Amino acid sequence: MDLQPNQVLRLIQINDQEALLRCSTIWICASCQTCSVRCPEEIDIAKMMDSLRKLALEAKTPLGEENVVKFDEIFIDSIRKRGRVHELELVMKYNLASRQPFKDAHLGPMMLSRRKLSFLGHKIREVGRIKEIFKNSKRLLRSQE
Amino acid sequence: MQVGYYPGCSLESSAKEFDLSIRAIFQEMGISLKEIPDWNCCGASPAHYLNEELASALPYRNLVRAEEAGLEKVVSPCPACYSHLKHIHEEAMKDAYLAERVRTIVGKMYQGKVQSKHLLDFLKEDVGLERLKSALKTSLNGLRVVSYYGCLTRLPGVNIDDVENPVMMDEVLQALGGETINWSHKTECCGASLSITRTEIALRLVHAILESAQEKGAECIAVVCPLCQSNLDTRQGDINKKYGTQFNTPILYLSQLIGLTQNLGSNQLGLDRLVYSPTEILLKRGIIEK
Questions:
Q1: Nearest CA to CA, how far is B101 from chain A (Å)?
Q2: Residue B81: domain span
Q3: Are residues A73 and A57 part of one domain?
Q4: Chain B touched by A12 (CB under 8 Å)
Q5: I need a surface site. Which of A78, A138, B31, B242 has the fewest CB within 10 A?
Q6: What pLDDT is attached to residue A7?
Q7: Searching chain A, which residue's CA lies closest to the CA of residue B43?
Q8: Distance CA B97, CA B235 (A)
Q9: Which one of B88, B120, B152 terminates a domain?
Q10: Domain finish residue from B120, B147, B162
Q11: pLDDT tens digits for range B77-125
Q12: Does residue B35 belong to any structural domain of this protein?
């Protein structure tokens, strides 16, 4: 987190778009909402971070945490193809996309022996409907533009 | 009694034991669960900023499917799934423009007849502590347990308990004969959303949670979220390695703890699927027998 949330707010006030859109903070925010419920000025900081993420994507500038976005895009793509997320496929595709093929591989046997990995995943019956929903929704993913 | 059920994607694989134990305890209590037919993923956190309309349309379709199936109440075990169903229901009811837009995207109209419940909320308010107590065949025998809620009570649309000092899970555990411990990390973030992409951050956050539970003498941690469980259980080995600690803390789903008091079998509750086995503490407390 290269900027503290209060610094992010100050940068918004002075409209320093460049610093805001390239910072890592907006991607490191895990959206746990603690700051939003604590803020004495009732500023919804988590929502603010979410909005900045959208602006950063729209600006098409280099992103502060490219891998976080890569993961999320693969996540969404899994929904488009199946209607549900396939966890194993998601992690394997992310590892390839982020060029760290063996990341967390040591967890594989442990999860396998506890039957926590589904190999085939599930595709819903109305997956065509889901693809329609994707097509109809505005604000497309980068890969589809 | 019949109630709708929205398991969500995690409960199909990494959190299978959450699904198994929920089905088992509901069956035991005579509550029949009916899955939303052909449900889809709620979009989780990525949809919000990648495609805002999609983030509304995905849960909206689930509400439509639930309504078509005549499900008036839907229970979600996953806090994110629950938050998304509840939030989009509320938004569609108060924002006519959004409702119309989402209806067009999904191609069907949601009338607003589905009441969403999180598992915890359903157990406490709908099933009730008295009914949980009457289903008891044994007890948690004073098991020292900390309730870990994570971000559940703060998520959009969620209004079930105090945002920073929730007590619902503690009350359920006390009704089962558990000794709940007050602790500092009840609602601290586990960093699950960064667990794959910025693992070291998640490790640091989970380390602090495990340490706080240990300092309080907790024998196990009770959770109601598939991501909290996975993060606290699966990553414990990595944490021990990185921080030189010797954590060996079982992370149990609340539904598994309830099932134990109903004398349900270890297989039915998926206890063998947990990475850090609770068997030793359960034997020690006389909750299960050899």
A1: 9
A2: 2-120
A3: no
A4: no
A5: A138
A6: 97
A7: A76
A8: 44
A9: B120
A10: B120
A11: 999 999 999 999 999 999 999 999 999 999 999 999 999 999 999 999 9
A12: yes
Percent of chain B past pLDDT 90, that is, above it, reads: 97
For the segment A73-95, the average pLDDT, to the nearest whole number, is: 95
Residues B142 and B81 in one domain: no
Q: Let me know if residue B115 belongs to a domain.
A: yes
The reply to whether B279 and B142 lie within a common domain is yes
pLDDT at B72 over 60: yes
> Does B167 share its domain with B104?
no
ipTM for the assembly: 0.93
For residue B180, the cross-strand partners are B145
pLDDT cut 70: percent of chain A above it: 95
Degrees to nearest 5, angle at CA B108 with B103 and B109: 65
On whether both A13 and A43 belong to a single domain, the answer is yes
Identify from B6, B17, B36, B51 which residue to disrupt to test chain A contact, counting A C-beta atoms within 10 A and taking the largest count. B51
Instruction: Please check whether residues B11 and B104 belong to one and the same domain.
Output: yes
Considering only the beta carbons, identify the residue of B15, B57, B196 that sits closest to A91: B196
Check whether residue B116 and residue B143 sit in a common domain.
no
State which residues form the domain around A76.
66-145
Regarding whether B158 and B82 lie in a shared domain, the answer is: no
Judged by a CB distance cut-off of 8 A, whether residue A118 touches chain B is: yes
Chain-chain contact of A115 with B61 (C-beta, under 8 angstroms)? no
| A104 φψ region: left (φ > 0), alpha (ψ -120 to 50), beta (else) | left
Band of residue A139 on the pLDDT scale cut at 50, 70, 90 = low
Q: Which residue of B has its CA nearest to A79?
A: B41
Q: Could you tell me if B154 and B277 lie in one domain?
A: yes
Contact of B145 with chain A, judged by CB distance below 8 Å, is answered with: no
